[in-house]
């Protein structure tokens, strides 16, 4: 066992304010462990994510940020060796309950990945796909309106309104990422998970996505994994710091970046490791 692992023997409590008042909470996780086969990747995470807040998750590579994020809409179900223990509640309902419809869950808790992944379909059909499979609208005029609204909310309507029937793969990387956000929004999610959504984008495209996150936070709960501390500072109200699968500290973003309580958080934000 390395000395840093010894530091965590019997680890339980997180520093800061991981829990919120019930009426402010959208997602609650309690005692969440995640395993890949017999290797444990996440250890006993208790964390609340509030309504209409942007929560940033930061930490060194391999600390489990993406693994934890993916438990929040059961994306980990797609990995055979992955096992999740503990409680994850969305509006008070355990999303790992037997009766939970995972397709509907992933509409309620949408996810945007690191690399934009539009379907090999037209721009219109990328956005219309989710509403169609969920039977949200039946008439073409209603679908047109829904597609336009989602593209407007994702700040890409003006750039694509004259080429809706063209392949989405012909858009720039930043446009594709905003299209993927429109696709997520089109099925009226409550929560949007973002796994390093700007890491494949240039600074201008990144700035547009960050502005968009700010606008979306008025209507949606957002949890974002990012390697960029500057980005976490720009877009989030609260930040959670992970280390070796443990949630070390949670607090207002301002506090985490100016006066963290835990030495590991301080070492990371001052660039001593990571
Ligand atoms: N599909 C998988 N199978 C086995 N182990 C995995 C799998 N995905 C992740 N892991 C392991 O789980 C741990 C956490 O990985 P994860 O990708 O969640 O970390 P991360 O903090 O998001 O890393 P990064 O910042 O580099 O993306 C790592 O040790 C990783 O090797």
Could you explain the architecture of this structure?
- With 274 residues, this protein is of the alpha/beta class.
- It has a single domain, classed as P-loop containing nucleotide triphosphate hydrolases (Rossmann fold).
- It has 11 helices and 11 strands.
- α8 (203-216) links the parallel β8 and β9.
- A 7-stranded mixed β-sheet has the order 1-11-10-4-9-8-7, sandwiched between helices.
- The radius of gyration is 19 Å and the shape is globular.
- Residues 36, 41, 59, 61-67, 79, 81 line the site of adenosine-5'-triphosphate.
How are the strands of the largest sheet arranged?
1-11-10-4-9-8-7
Q: How many discrete domains?
A: 1
Q: Distance between termini?
A: 20 Å
Low-confidence residue ranges = none
What composes the largest sheet?
7 strands, mixed
* Order of helical and strand elements: HEEEEHEEHEHHHHEHEHEEHH
InterPro entries: AAA+_ATPase (IPR003593), ABC_transporter-like_ATP-bd (IPR003439), ABC_transporter-like_CS (IPR017871), P-loop_NTPase (IPR027417), PstB-like (IPR005670)
Keywords: ATP-binding, Nucleotide-binding, Phosphate transport, Transport
GO molecular function: ATP binding; ATP hydrolysis activity; phosphate transmembrane transporter activity
Protein name: Phosphate transport ATP-binding protein PstB
């Amino acid at each position: 066992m390395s000395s840093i692992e010894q530091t965590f023997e019997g680890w339980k409590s997180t520093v800061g304010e991981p829990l919120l008042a019930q009426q402010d909470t959208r997602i609650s996780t309690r005692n969440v462990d995640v395993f890949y086969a017999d290797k444990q990747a996440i250890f006993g995470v208790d964390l609340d994510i509030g309504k209409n807040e942007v929560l940033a998750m930061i930490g060194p590579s391999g600390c489990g940020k993406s693994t934890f994020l993916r438990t929040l809409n059961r994306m980990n179900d797609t990995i055979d060796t992955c096992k999740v223990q503990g409680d994850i509640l969305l509006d008070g309902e355990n999303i790992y309950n037997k009766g939970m419809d995972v397709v509907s869950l992933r509409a309620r808790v949408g996810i945007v990945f690191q690399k934009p992944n539009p379907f090999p379909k037209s721009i219109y059909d990328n956005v219309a796909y989710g509403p169609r499979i969920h039977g949200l609208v039946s008439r073409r005029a209603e679908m047109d309106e829904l597609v336009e609204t989602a593209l407007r909310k994702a700040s890409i309507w003006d750039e694509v309104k004259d080429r809706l029937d063209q392949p989405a793969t012909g858009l720039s990387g930043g446009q594709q990422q905003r299209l993927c956000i429109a696709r997520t929004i089109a099925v009226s999610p409550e929560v949007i998970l973002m796994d390093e959504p700007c890491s494949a984008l240039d600074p201008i495209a990144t700035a547009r996505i960050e502005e968009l996150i700010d606008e979306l936070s008025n209507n949606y709960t957002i949890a974002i994994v990012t390697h960029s501390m500057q980005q976490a500072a720009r877009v989030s109200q609260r930040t959670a710091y992970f280390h070796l699968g443990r949630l070390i500290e949670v607090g207002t973003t301002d506090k985490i970046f100016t006066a963290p309580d835990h030495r590991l958080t301080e070492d990371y934000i001052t660039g001593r490791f990571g």
